[in-house]
Amino acid sequence: MEIKGTKRGDEWYVMGSKTLGKDELRLNQVDYETFYNRVGKKNGWDFSSLQLTSEGVKWDFYNEVAKRVKETDLLLDIGTGGGENLLEIASCLHLLVGIDLSKGMMETAEKNLHNSNVNNVRFAQMSSNALQFPESFFDVVSCNHAPFNSREVSRVLKSEGLFLTQQVSEADKFNIKEAFGRGQSFGEEDGSLKEKYIRELQEAGFSDVQSFEYDATDYFQRPEDLIFLLTHTPIIPHFGEEKTDLDKLNCFIEDNLTDKGIRTNSKRFMILAKK
Question: With CB atoms counted within 10 Å of each terminal CB, which end of the chain scores lower, N or C?
């Protein structure tokens, strides 16, 4: 199905097989901080309504965290977003603290905490470059799809403490970036970020650093699902701003439409580091 768009003032509105809410399809030019604040306040990165299937996913990050913690542990989660994942594993630990740079994300996280029955989770707006905690305070630190400072992570971890992170590889959503001719980490050598993080962790004093990766195939069931992804993430910066974006989107869907859905990929790597 062809995706059509209209421009009203300085904003694009996209229409597919059904009309989506304007807030979901408004494609403003924003800097990343404003982008994360707006999305965090709106939905806390809750993509639960997306119709998406995946093949080849090797792990769930927060399940991996839960496997490696004890009920007496204190955990810090960097870039916690709306805190949904932290709330789900709260029963596995003594105390969990989630931090995020975005005020909007923290507002969403506090609402999610208020609506839960969890009483051992705390949230705070904070930069990962300046963690406001004492040295050797946490047993475990986790970080999912967010930047972190290796030296700060090492400083707040206890001796023998564990750090786990999952990050997006450069080759993630490669066919989408190729179709648009731009995108997050587009043109960078795949594996560069993983090697950078491993090197920084070793320099920060982590003695045992292991890495794992997978490259899964994703199938978006509707054009609306793909549009939601591109509108609510920075995969294609300023998606919809360039005049040719809608034509490129239509071509991408036509070239990657299969019996299972609109095909792309999710490439992830996970690092486990012991202090």
Answer: N
Cα separation, 131 vs 77, in Å, equals 11
Average pLDDT of the residues in 142-147: 96
Which is it for strands 261-274 and 157-168: parallel, antiparallel or unpaired?
antiparallel
Bridge partners of 98, per DSSP, are 77, 123
pLDDT for res 47: 61
For all residues of the chain together, what is the average pLDDT? Answer: 86
State pLDDT tens for residues 258-274. Answer: 999 999 999 999 999 99
Torsion angle of alpha carbons 100, 68, 191, 177, nearest 10°? Answer: -50
Dist CA 255 CA 220 (whole Å): 14
Q: Which of 178, 185, 170 is closest to 248 using CA atoms?
A: 178
Q: Are strands 74-78 and 52-55 parallel, antiparallel or unpaired?
A: unpaired
pTM: 0.82
Domain 33-223+265-274 grouped into CATH 3.40.50.150: yes
- Going from N- to C-terminal start, the domains of the chain cover 33-223+265-274
State mean pLDDT over 119-125: 97
Burial 16-26 (b: 16+ CB within 10 A, else e): beeeeeeeebe
**Exposed, middle or buried, 109 (CB in 10 Å: 0-12/13-18/19+)?**
buried
Look-up of token digits 């494609």: 27
Mean pLDDT over 24-49 rounds to 46
